[in-house]
TrEMBL record:
UniProt-annotated catalytic positions: D67 (proton acceptor), N136 (for ring-opening step), H138 (proton acceptor), E143 (for ring-opening step)
GO biological process: carbohydrate metabolic process; glucosamine catabolic process; N-acetylglucosamine catabolic process; N-acetylneuraminate catabolic process
Name of protein: Glucosamine-6-phosphate deaminase
Lineage of source species: Bacteria, Bacillati, Bacillota, Tissierellia, Tissierellales
Superkingdom to which the source organism belongs: Bacteria
Amino acid sequence: MKIFIEKNYTDLSKRVADIIESEMKEKSNLVLGLATGSTPIGTYEELIKRHKEEGLDFSKITTFNLDEYLGIPHDHVNSYHYFMEENFFKSINIDNDKINIPNGNPENAEEYCKAYDEKIENQGGIDVQILGIGENGHIAFNEPDDKLYLGTHVTDLTESTIKANSRFFDSIDDVPKKAITMGLGSIMKSKKILLLASGKNKANTIKKLLKDGVVSTHNPASLLLLHPDVTIILDEEAAEEY
Ligand code: GLP
């Protein structure tokens, strides 16, 4: 496991972009696992900058997003489809056919989830997976629980995640209560994992992850500590209690 502690959010974002850029240069048809939330926005901005200024080429890249709210239209301002389009895809030269985001309105959720995992496998698996972390240690929408699911699945969001994500909605009642998410097994199959955390509100989360020396389904991010190629990129605020 590698840990980088960067001075601030800008440096954190540049570090993550550096790692992704170097992987893209090694493999032009990289399969990139993408995350939403506020943390990776700076990384996306940095990659967009490199695309515009240095011609960083996304034309052969395939992407798989981790999750989507259930029952939300794709053009809803709070859908992860909308988020990805606005914060990343509309500003790079990615082929629309190579973008994969879980469908928040599947006809048959069980079949859809299975097909999503199969599609990842058929692409040869995810080469580099970007991850944020919820304050309660959730990864994608794998919430702390007695058990965690391996594959992509539908899940209930915890009260704390609904509360944390309500900052993006008009009211807490508007936050969807369910989501479709890649499972810990799908995520752990990625060849390389980049876990990002920024800001004081993640300091205790990072302390629990890195100092407790415990792996538990009640702290889903802790399972990542078992992965052979995980890099954790923090800013000083998130690393404050570590
Ligand atoms: C959401 C997403 C996660 C993300 C988390 C943290 O719940 N499903 O993938 O890691 O929020 O978000 P933020 O980066 O805004 O703290």
